[in-house]
Amino acid sequence: MEVEGEETECSMILLPLIGDRVMIFDVEDVKKLRKLGILGVLTGTLPSAPQQNVFHGIPLELGIYEVIWLVENGYGTIVDSLKMHEEVEKQSKSEMSRQNRERVIGDFTHIPNSPAVNSVHSNDPVGAVGLREFIVSRCPTNEALRALLTDYFVFRSVRQNGYQVMPGLRFGGDMIAYPGDPLRYHSHLIVRPLRGPVNLLDIVAGGRLATGVKKVWVIGGLLQEDKTKIQEITIEEESIDQILESEVKPISFSIEWAGFG
Amino acid sequence: MENPDDVIDVRLDNDDEVEDEVQDWKILKNSRNSEIIPKRGEKDFEPDGTNVQAKLIDDSREAMFEALETPRGYFSKNRLTAVWMKDEKKALVLHPRGNYFKDMGAAAKIGNNRHGVWLNEIETVYLCERGSLLVYLGNSSFVEYLESDATDFDYQGELMALTLSHLYALAFCESPDLLDQYHVYALLKRNGYLIQRYTPKEEKEIQQSSSPTLTHNITNVLAKSYSVLKQLFFNIAPCIIKQHLLAFYISSRYESLWTDFYYQKHHILSYTSLFRQLRLIPSYSASNCHLQSAENTSPYQISYNIWKPMPNFSKKNPPKPDFQVCIVNTNKISFPKVEDIRCLLSNAEISDSDYERPGETKNTKAKGKSTAQTQTKKQMREQRRKDRFNKLSEYSQKKTIYLRKRDDMLKHGTSGKSVLLAVLQDGVLNFMNLSEVDFTFRDSSRIKLDNILPKRPHEIMWHGAIES
């Protein structure tokens, strides 16, 4: 685990669920996540430079593995964003017009990212969503659930080995792993979780591609006993929490393209 | 904190790669006054445990957080407000102003002669996120105001101004697919494109012909029976005949090649005629495949029509789009099947514009921008290339243009139909281009090539002069 992770305070990070994904609007939360090595992807328009696509702004979109990891390790709580904001709507009229006035500073009208901290932050937020509920909403079938759990254990083990992880779309993998903050380092690994036998041609394709972009292709999967454990899990059961707590150790191999002679 | 007059104009050296890697935010901080974001910051291979490196990371993070904390909003001279109507899931702008409505919004007429613009979920979030639009949450007193004849309304006292996260929740919580569409929309808008939601052709026709006439009905019937005939002809007939024909064709071609050699009936004196003889497998034109798409149940649909920036864009009467995009989320759906791709392409517009080489467009832009500046190496190379080209004979010039045009058509499609596939994974976005190529250059593509050099066998490697 990241050494920096220990510095974070114990207050829960609220993970607002919008539709089927979690998006963070509070810059303070973005800072906390960064310290934990949870990167997410900034997807919003940067108000100071709104006509470019190199640097993006708030919100920060989190991947499903990142959300599970945060909740599982007690750093965050998922909340239904709509319910959370309905609470905010209930505030009194006088409070509302005071807030509206405060948003105009001199000549500038300010549009805040998220509601004021004191109006929502607490360790028992309105509209809390359980982890199981969240996972099942994303994986409506047993098959999808098992695939997700397999992928998640690979994600978790990559993180446990000290890497920080981002979506791998641009490099043709499920995830890419960095040895530290991607702001400073190039990525080392293109990770592909495996759910079944691997096609030999995929190994060649992945290995060549990764070596071509100076990375290593990593395939990871579960050992037979863990596989059996996961095969028993269904979406109706409470056992999802148990398996997340249990010690599942994926096995992984790195593949590099090498020429002879 | 955007102020249209002094928006930081960030253009890229090489946009292909910059967006691929995570960039160093210090660059943004340093480039406030400069025009171009440098290619990329220096990165390290791995942590080396030094304080220097730790400090560099801290600086980068600080720069990032600082950029994220820049307040969102507008100065009063750019004031623009909207009211979110929960029931309609749209925002009403009563006093639209600014450049944004060229391609956004739909005209609204409410109550007694109150005019404004409706913005859909995506447009509202986009404008709010870039700090250009303040959105209030509508309530009963606002609805009363709309229906009344009152001229003034106390927004600040009566309505709650929404935070960005609140607006996201209202707009996207019940329809998560809209979020994918929003990512694509916002990225393209940030690049300056004009965008409108795509409406399928049939719907458009229904909208246009709200009062059906007899002639319309007749043409409709005619058109339908024609398409049925066409289907019969193209789909059923080839199925039966194709296989036999193919076998026959190949054997006959082999035979003719063999007999040609053997009896020396036909002297092969150039590569062109050799290649011509080697054409063994019959091909068919891509445009014939689109006829099956009568019922369109594919999960892959075009979402947006996209235009390059243009001065006189009309929302009501837009020209043919430059691009059309279909959105795919890797978490939910895989790469489209052939049938889906056909379906997409059959719904795509045929673009009139020829493919422009990126090099050429860039150069014209650069010239307009900096005539006084000294030529860059790239421009000098380009100039030399042009000089060389002008020295060629007229025939060689034509041949050069011809080969370039043909290569472009092979690379970017011959039918002029193409659909962009916007691929999303957890907020990361990549584009792919699906287009169709007819390697035999029939129909319209033949005409385009014939215009440059007529009567060539466009479909084969053309190597030197051909006899007769």
From TrEMBL, chain A:
GO terms for cellular component: tRNA-intron endonuclease complex. Residues 15-80 form the TSEN34 N-terminal domain. Keywords: Lyase, tRNA processing. The keyword Lyase applies. It comes from the Eukaryota. GO terms for molecular function: nucleic acid binding; tRNA-intron lyase activity. This is tRNA-splicing endonuclease subunit Sen34. It comes from Pichia sorbitophila (strain ATCC MYA-4447 / BCRC 22081 / CBS 7064 / NBRC 10061 / NRRL Y-12695). The gene is Piso0_004614.
TrEMBL record, chain B:
The keyword tRNA processing applies. Residues 354-363 have a biased composition (Basic and acidic residues). InterPro entries: tRNA_splic_suSen54, tRNA_splic_suSen54_N. Signal peptide: none annotated. GO terms for cellular component: tRNA-intron endonuclease complex. One of its GO terms (biological process) is tRNA-type intron splice site recognition and cleavage. Pfam families: tRNA_int_end_N2. Residues 65-136 form the tRNA-splicing endonuclease subunit Sen54 N-terminal domain. Keywords: tRNA processing. Residues 354-385 are annotated as: Disordered. Belongs to the SEN54 family. This is Piso0_005383 protein. The gene is Piso0_005383.
